[in-house]
From TrEMBL:
Keywords: Cell membrane, Membrane, Transmembrane, Transmembrane helix. Its main location: membrane. It is a multi-pass membrane protein. This is Oligosaccharide flippase family protein. It comes from Methylobacterium adhaesivum.
Length: 470
């Protein structure tokens, strides 16, 4: 089941990521940097509002889920999410009244938050119940709809607000498969006792997700105000691509392996979950190490293929920093940060998020005015690294996500050897050719295959051995 679930999620995330990259390539060619930067600026406000209002109920649900009370828990979560979207509308209206955003943009932000809430909420409930096919279908469907609807509105109007509305509609429509899978539970009655349990566990997440959402957008808000939306367009486009690339795998691991480990922990405690979590840590290490090497080696090719000409120079200037930030984000969010689901409290997440916010905000205020987007990227790297360290240290009860450090060291050393081999090929050749690119990719893939075989990642090596024995 572990291999099947993980491969299903990785496959759907992979297809979704490919389509999202196609969307990015199309959008950055249809829209000038100023227009796309304006879209990212409005989206940043939507993400902050969503994080402050609508995220905590669904994560509390995952942490406290009990099969025996499933209908009551789902009914309660749905009512809580409905209340939160109402609160989001009030906050957006207040922001428009203060003049922070225009009224039209505020309305689009609320619709965007609604789309995120419906999609993420439906997928979280389906994921918790191990409805793999429905979640995978939603992921792919959303990517298809974003590409189609987004391209259409850019060709029709070219406005940033319209692009945000198109992505919101895509989220709403893509939520249909998981909503159908959990349909019988949606008729469940709400419960005040369940609501109190969710709130008792989740109230630190209100602060946590609000801080995290602001931390992950504050650099963009400062860039938009002090440097300009044109620079923000290049910075945000490449940053989103890298983040999406690592999130594809990190989120798949969390959806599959961590969900299974959580079920094991419910039945047998943390010791029962440890083998699954250590497998997840090894897989995460392979993705972080070899993914980082890939982007460091081929960042120039990726930027040329992915981004329009107006975006390329600025993106390449901050590529190494953004790669490091994406790796730390993946490790923090999708492995070490998952510790809160095995703990009795979510306070550690709040501490990590506040650390992230304070670090990125302080460094962005200091570094962006003199150094522009390079200063922003530096602030994000350091913020993500410090927040990750908070989770590694663990909570007061001593619960920590297990890490097979010796195996991780071997994986890191192998990835470094691959990077040095690729660098030697680049230094020995007069220029990058098709032959050298193929050779470099073969070296990288050989390293990945060796680690996957050595540690039987996803059980593939064991399956091959059993097949040979038969």
């Amino acid at each position: 089941m572990i291999a099947r679930h993980t491969l299903t999620y990785v496959g759907s995330r992979g297809v979704g990521a490919a389509l999202n990259m196609a969307s990015l390539a199309v959008f950055t060619r249809l829209a000038p940097a100023e227009a796309y930067g304006g879209y990212l600026l409005i989206l940043s406000w939507a993400l902050v509002l969503y994080g402050a209002t609508c995220q905590w109920p669904k994560f509390s649900f995952f942490a406290l889920y009990d099969e025996a009370r499933a209908a009551s828990q789902v009914g309660t979560v749905m009512r809580l999410l409905g209340a939160m979207i109402g609160l989001a509308g009030l906050l957006a209206a207040f922001g428009a009244w203060l003049g922070i955003v225009e009224a039209g943009a505020a309305a689009a932000i609320v619709v965007a938050v609604l789309g995120m809430m419906v999609f993420e909420g439906a997928c979280e409930i389906a994921r918790t119940r191990l409805e793999v096919g429905a979640v995978a279908a939603a992921i792919v469907l959303r990517a298809v709809l974003v590409l189609g609807l987004g391209s259409g509105v850019l060709l029709w109007t070219g406005h940033a607000v319209d692009l945000l509305m198109a992505t919101a509609i895509a989220n709403l429509l893509a939520a249909l498969p998981p909503l159908r899978a959990i349909g019988p539970l949606l008729r469940g009655r709400g419960s005040w006792s369940e609501a109190r349990r969710l709130l008792d566990y989740g109230w630190p997440l209100v602060l946590s997700f609000a801080a995290a959402a602001l931390a992950q957008t504050i650099d963009r808000l400062i860039i938009g105000q002090s440097v300009g939306v044109s620079e923000l367009g290049a910075y945000g486009a490449f940053s989103d691509f890298l983040r999406q690339s690592f999130v594809v795998f990190g989120d798949s691991i969390a959806l599959a392996l961590v969900s299974i480990a959580k079920r094991e922990a419910r039945e047998g405690g943390m010791d029962a979950a440890r083998p699954v979590l250590e497998d997840a840590a090894r897989l995460m290490a392979v993705i972080a190490a070899f993914g980082g090497v890939f982007f460091l080696a081929f960042d120039d090719l990726v930027v040329v293929v992915l981004l329009g000409p107006d975006y390329r120079t600025a993106a390449l200037g901050v590529a190494p920093l953004l790669i490091a930030a994406s790796v730390f984000l993946m490790l923090r969010s999708y492995y070490f940060g998952q510790v809160i689901y095995f703990s009795a409290s979510s306070r550690l997440d709040a501490i990590a998020s506040v650390t992230l916010l304070v670090t990125i905000t302080g460094l962005s205020a200091v570094l962006i005015p003199p150094y522009g987007i390079a200063g922003a990227a530096t602030a994000v790297v350091l913020g993500q690294a410090l927040a990750c360290l908070v989770f590694i240290a663990g909570d007061r009860t001593g619960i920590r996500m297990p890490v097979p450090w010796r195996d991780v060291a071997v994986i890191g050393a192998t990835a470094l050897a691959c990077r040095l081999a690729i660098a030697s090929i680049e230094a020995a050749s007069a220029g990058r050719t098709t032959a050298t690119v193929i050779l470099e990719l073969v070296i990288l893939l050989t390293g990945v295959a060796a680690m996957a075989w050595r540690y039987d990642i996803l059980g593939v090596a064991g399956l091959v051995r059993r097949w040979r024995a038969a």
